[in-house]
Amino acid sequence: MRLPDDTEVNDEVWDEVIEIMKVRVKDKAAVIRTFAIRSLSRFVNDADNIDILELFLEMLSLEQNAVSVLDTGNN
Amino acid sequence: MQKIAKILGETRTSNATHIRKLKELKAARSKCSSTAEFSSAFFRTLIPLFGVQRRTASSERVVRFVSVFAGTNNDEFLEHMLKFLLLGAVAANKTARFRACQIISEASVLITLYFDFSFFIVKYDIKIPFASLIFLFHTPKHMKKNLIFNFLLPFRQFNFYRL
Question: Whole-model pTM above 0.80?
Answer without folding.
Answer: no
